[in-house]
Design goal:
alpha/beta, Rossmann fold, seven-stranded parallel β-sheet, 13 strands, about 50% helix, serine protease, transmembrane, membrane, hydrolase, Peptidase S8
């Protein structure tokens, strides 16, 4: 009874601690916070200490050898959890470093635990048992080969090394001495499989909880316990095949051990090598990586139980025949080939590692770009000059590095909006690039691993509103249409987001058209498409017809910079570069860009946090280029309020960006709207707009209400479109446009103390200059000369 209670305590405590730790991580990410590095090590140490406190007496006090063996195994598992859990202090984006540390740590623990055993207990499992264990491990790996995908070459090799070390560690804990405590009179039957398998399962749960970064360890602690039964069922095979049936003595602690390490090593490669821990995140909603990771873990556990049952039936009977080695070889080969077929035929073969975003030291000088011509002509002249200078800088400074990359046969993609190059390479390439005199810094460019099936696209179930909804009437957009006879005609708004459903009835007529109004660097689609829905909603709020958009007469162009709600510095730059100088499908941005076709205003309901690879200044060159070119850059403040100082993900904190927060229908700043000050101490946001329960378009022709500063941002872009449509002389005059918006902004209902988290300083860091007023801004714009 004591052993049962200790086992339940270990399982329950570890499961709750690991799940809670992951949820805390996710809440911190969603809230825009950074969890302290000591959280995971402390969680592992406390968890291990509480288990050790009850497992240690169990290892020495009871008379029963089986109970003592359980206590020793669980105590060793707790030690593994304490030591390997410390490795989660390594930042999650540095998964290669983590895997290398895990491989070394697990191997050292295995050596230490083997050193505490007597030499008489060391033995090797028989060949047929090893082959059957490999077959079982490969069967357990099958679901991962279907739903998962490998990372980069270095990451994959390190994952294999870590899996092998973890298998060796598991075998060091569950050695022959452990299994001998559960032998029955004949060494076969229910007792060794059921009792030994249960105790081994609890041990492997503790090992699994220590393996993998935050997220992937949940899969390991779920699937590894089930492999305990398969290992237990192979105990008679290992012993009889090695010593012969007559020579086998149940309870012999020096006898052959089952091939624990082989089975565990192959099985644990699934969560270590075929899934990126960064993607096991609540940021990826719907049927994405977290969902498929759960499917794979559940499938693996089910397969392990089935294999364990099959092996127990086949080998557990007293007179069961142990197969020859060739039978094990054929079985292992068949399952391995089946796994390869599943991965190639149903999965995603190949490598999907992170790329490197290399920022060059030399950046273009964009100072002094002016023009005497007002309006469209002056704006176009500035765009052309900015484009020329950017191209000249990139061409003059990237040559040496690009020649070296060609020589080393490393694939790369150059950029000019920021003088940078995206390079395919691992840690060694990153170190080499970082040591070059012409390189400023090297960032990770997060790549998303593919899914076995695309998640369902967002859909809307509501009809088009018969009259303008609250968000449009609150800012007076409807009055601009009816009383000032302005709807944004003549202005083009660029949307960089998850895409746009170009066939939606509220958006189809507003698409600018031509061969340079749509770009999809993620999936290569040739016509406006939206797999997520976020971009269709935001574009609709800016320029949609049917009573949803602020500037329904304006046109739009689009680009996909988010895939499954994640991006990276290179994909964000792909779209921004396209917005400065659009190019046709398959065109080269360096030679085929058309700066005269640049949109007037950009709406950007996204941010690039460190999780995606950006640092604080990653996109400063891009927004500075748009400012110099007279293109208004509007960006969402973020949804990490009510914490003060939460406007920190590029591009929202930048001074040359018009940053937008959100208010609700009552006129108060929403709790989720991010607050300033920006990291440099400047006041942010600049303005607020309706962002709570905003009705707009969704893919498929329907409509839905969403909330966020993402919904507020396109409304400010739409107001700017109305202003420039009413007075074309303002086109490209960012300072005057911004001044008018700020000076005509309406008051916001003051926040209560409970709506603030921390010291935001001045009220402008919560509400900016106030609520954007479309009617007042357009009326002022018409009067401006």
């Amino acid at each position: 009874m004591a052993a049962v209670l200790v086992g339940l305590w270990a399982v329950g405590l570890t499961t709750v601690a690991q799940t809670t730790g992951w949820l805390v991580d996710q809440v911190a990410i969603v809230a825009g916070l950074t969890a302290p590095v000591w959280v995971w090590p402390l969680t592992s140490l406390v968890d291990a200490a509480l288990i050790s406190a009850v497992a240690a007496p169990l290892a020495v006090v009871p008379r029963s050898a089986a109970v003592r063996a359980a206590g020793r195994a669980w105590l060793c598992g707790a030690i593994v959890l304490a030591v390997l859990g410390l490795l989660r202090a390594i930042p999650q984006p540095q998964n290669e470093l983590y895997l290398a540390a895990l491989a070394a740590g697990a191997a050292l623990l295995a050596v230490a635990m083997r050193a505490t055993r007597g030499r008489g207990r060391r033995s090797r499992p028989a060949g047929v048992a090893v082959l059957l264990a490999v077959a079982a491990g490969a069967a357990v790996l099958l679901p991962w080969l279907w739903v998962g995908a490998l990372g980069g070459l270095t990451e994959t090799v390190l994952a294999a090394a870590a899996a092998a070390a973890v298998g060796w560690l598991a075998a060091s804990i569950l050695d022959a001495g452990f299994w001998s405590a559960y032998d029955g009179p004949t060494g076969r039957g229910v007792r060794p499989v059921l009792l030994g398998g249960l105790v081994a399962g609890v041990t492997l749960l503790l090992v699994g909880a220590a393996v993998g970064h935050s997220g992937s360890q949940l899969a390991a602690l779920f699937l590894l316990p089930a492999t305990g039964f398969a290992v237990a069922a192979l105990r008679p095979v290992a012993a009889v095949a090695a010593q012969g049936s007559a020579a086998y003595r149940p309870g012999d602690a020096s006898g052959p051990r089952p091939p624990v390490g082989w089975l565990v090593a192959v099985a644990v490669f699934g969560p270590l090598g075929l899934v990126d821990p960064e993607e096991i995140s609540l940021v990826l909603i719907d049927r994405d990586i977290p969902f498929w990771t759960a499917v794979a873990a559940g499938g693996s556990a089910a397969v392990a139980l089935v294999v364990g049952l099959a092996y127990a039936i086949a080998f557990g009977r007293a007179r069961a025949v142990i197969p020859h080695r060739w039978v094990g070889a054929v079985t292992a080969a068949a399952v391995v080939l089946a796994g390869a077929a599943v991965h190639v035929g149903l999965g995603h073969p190949g490598l999907y590692g992170e790329r490197l975003f290399v920022v060059m030291k030399e950046q273009a000088d964009l100072t002094g770009i002016t023009t005497a011509e007002p309006g469209q002509a002056g704006r176009d002249a500035k765009v052309r000059e900015v484009h020329r200078r950017l191209l000249a800088t990139a061409a003059g400074s990237q040559g040496d590095l690009r020649r070296e990359l060609d020589r080393l046969r490393l694939s790369y993609k150059p950029y000019y909006l920021i003088n940078a190059i995206e390079v395919d390479g691992g840690p060694a390439v990153r170190a080499w690039l970082g040591s070059r005199a012409d390189v400023d810094r090297v960032l990770l460019s997060q790549e998303i691993r593919p899914l076995p099936a695309a998640p369902p696209p967002g859909r809307g179930t509501e009809p088009a509103p018969p009259t303008p909804p609250w968000h449009l009437t609150t800012i007076g957009a409807d009055r601009v249409w009816s009383q000032l006879d302005t709807d944004g005609a003549g202005i083009v708004v660029g949307s960089s987001d998850s895409g746009v459903d170009g066939s939606h009835p509220a958006l189809a007529a507003g698409f600018r058209g031509g061969d340079d109004s749509w770009y999809d660097p993620w999936n290569g689609t040739r016509t406006p498409t939206d797999r997520g829905g976020h971009g269709t909603h935001t574009a609709g709020s800016a320029v949609g017809r049917d009573n949803i958009g602020v500037a329904p007469g304006a046109q739009w162009v689009g680009c996909v910079n988010l895939d499954r709600n994640l991006g990276n510095p290179a994909r964000y730059l792909d779209c921004l570069q396209f917005m400065l100088a659009p190019f046709p499908p398959g065109g080269d941005p360096f030679t085929d860009g058309r700066p005269d076709r640049a949109p007037h205003i950009l709406t950007n309901s996204w941010g690039c946090p460190g999780l995606e690879g950006c640092d604080a200044t990653a996109l400063t060159g891009a927004t500075a280029a748009f400012a110099a070119a007279g293109i208004l850059f509007v960006a969402a403040a973020g949804n990490t309020g009510p914490f003060c100082g939460s406007i920190d993900d590029p591009p929202a904190p930048y001074a040359d960006v018009l940053t937008v927060g959100a208010v609700n229908e009552s006129g108060q700043v929403t709790d989720f709207s991010s607050r300033g000050p920006a990291p440099d101490g400047s006041a942010k946001p600049d303005l607020v707009a309706p962002g709570d329960d905003v009705l707009s378009a969704m893919p498929g022709g329907g409509y839905a209400s969403n909330s966020g500063t993402s919904m507020a941002t396109p409304q400010v872009a739409g107001v700017a479109a109305l202003m420039w449509s009413a007075n074309p002389a303002l086109i490209g005059d960012l300072a005057t446009t911004r001044q008018i918006m700020v000076e005509t902004a309406a008051e916001v209902v003051p926040p209560t103390p409970s709506q603030l988290e921390g010291d935001c300083g001045q009220l402008a860091n919560v509400e900016g200059a106030g609520l954007v007023d479309a009617y007042a801004a357009v009326e002022r714009a018409r009067q401006t000369r």
